[in-house]
Amino acid sequence: MTATEFQPAKTPVRQPILQARDLVKTFGRVVGLDGVSLDLYPGEVLAIIGDNGAGKSTLIKCLTGAEVPDSGELKVSGQTVHFKRPQDARVHGIETVYQNLAVSPALDVASNLFLGREERLPGPLGKLFRVLDTKGMRRKAKEELTRLGISTLQDVTVPVENLSGGQRQAVAVARAAAFGSKVVVLDEPTAALGVRESNQVLQLVRDLRDRGLPVILISHNMPHVFDVADRIHIQRLGKCAATITPQSHSMTDAVAIMTGAATA
Ligand SMILES: Nc1ncnc2c1ncn2[C@@H]1O[C@H](COP(=O)(O)OP(=O)(O)O)[C@@H](O)[C@H]1O
Ligand SMILES: [Mg+2]
């Protein structure tokens, strides 16, 4: 036997998919982020909560290339990155669903999934006449939905405007999660939804997590956060006041930390 065979099995060190260190972002005299760090691990739902103005949006904008931090470091799978625009983050598999401009209502489900990455027919029809490969995209859209475990969207040829609010949100989430994404960032995904539809979207978040895709979830809804989050990052006055878990703290504790009435 060689010496290596006697070495004890090492516990694998979990490497974060996304790491932020000491992010600072100022807007003139206003400090949006005052040295914020965050780690996102494979297969976890990380919620970000905080009062209005606490820096939640600025934080995710820095993580997704929509804002450029003044200083600090960002790493994807251990590699330092510098995002100048959202496209830079997308190239690294970081996809964001913003609250409003999430889907194109007039287009069908498949077209929404392929928005911005449409596929043309092979040969001169596609190359010269730019004819879309509708059939191919529909087939791939179905495959992706199945792979992601999204069962609420059976027919990919339905225009999104004919879908319920929850199904529309599912389209937006599917688009972000499809085609090799590494991280999905959701900004208030249940804000405009009823109870049943919110539950569908929360289930979708769990399904993505269970398939190994980490999710960052910004939400004001404490029960939703405590329902799906593995860890909860609490922003307060531009800083991370604490990172807690639903097991370590109650909702009341979380609100107290958010408002400064308590520390973790
Ligand atoms: N583009 C901007 N210009 C000036 N101030 C901004 C801008 N974006 C955010 N801020 C300020 O930065 C702080 C954090 O804002 P934001 O990240 O939107 O908080 P949250 O999303 O938690 O409500 C606030 O004081 C806000 O007014
Ligand atoms: Mg905000």
TrEMBL record:
Xref: PROSITE patterns: ABC_TRANSPORTER_1, ABC_TRANSPORTER_2
- What Gene3D superfamilies has UniProt attached to this entry? P-loop containing nucleotide triphosphate hydrolases
Q: Which GO terms describe its molecular function?
A: ATP binding; ATP hydrolysis activity
* Alphabetical keyword list: ATP-binding, Nucleotide-binding
* Record-annotated ABC transporter domain positions: 18-262
- The entry's protein name is Fructose ABC transporter ATP-binding protein
Which gene is the coding source of this polypeptide chain?
Answer: frcA
